[in-house]
Design goal:
Number of strands: 0
Number of helices: 4
Distance between the termini: 138 Å
Strand content: under 5%
Shape: rod-shaped
Helix content: over 70%
Structural class: mainly alpha
Radius of gyration: 50 Å
Low-confidence stretches: 142-149
């Protein structure tokens, strides 16, 4: 029947099989641990790189905020200057309109009193009559085109003629 030596042999074989399985499992586990150690080194390199990149991003963000602040205050100053210049220009334009209206009235009065003395140099009174006839013809033709030269005063027409003559 069963002998103690047979039972002991069975236990020894079972222990041997379990030892072989343990050795195989230990080898597999060792390979996985080696792979994990290599991955750990790579992960440490990635973490160091991530920390450096984060620090660089923080510095860049601080520089960007500083630059944006400087640009914003510069724009604010330029806007304030532009507002001052705009108000000055508006004032000058208003004054120029008043002066131009006064000059136009004075020129109209001077023409009524003495048309020959008000003409620009080199322009004869006959030329003015011809130019008025031409401008009335042009006014009617340009009114067909949508432009309104009839709105111009005689002083403005003379000024335009003078300016054209200077070219």
């Amino acid at each position: 029947m069963l002998d103690i030596s047979n039972i002991e042999l069975g236990f020894n074989i079972l222990v041997a099989i379990l030892l072989v399985a343990t050795i195989v499992y230990a080898v597999i586990l060792n390979k996985k641990l080696d792979a994990l150690r290599e991955a750990k080194a790579e992960m440490e390199g990635l973490i160091v790189s991530f920390v450096e990149t984060t620090a660089k991003a923080e510095r860049s963000l601080a520089e960007f905020k500083t630059h944006a602040s400087n640009t914003g205050s510069g724009l604010k100053e330029n806007t304030l200057k532009a507002d001052g210049i705009l108000s000055d220009l508006s004032y000058l334009v208003d004054r120029a309109e008043v002066v131009a209206d006064r000059l136009e009235e004075d020129l109209g009065l001077a023409r009524q009193n003495s048309p020959e003395t008000v003409l620009p140099k080199g322009v004869k009174s006959g030329d003015v009559k011809k130019d008025k006839a031409k401008s009335s013809n042009k006014a009617t033709s340009s009114s067909k085109e949508g432009a309104t030269k009839k709105d111009l005063s005689p002083a403005a027409e003379d000024l335009l003629k003078t300016l054209k003559g200077m070219r």
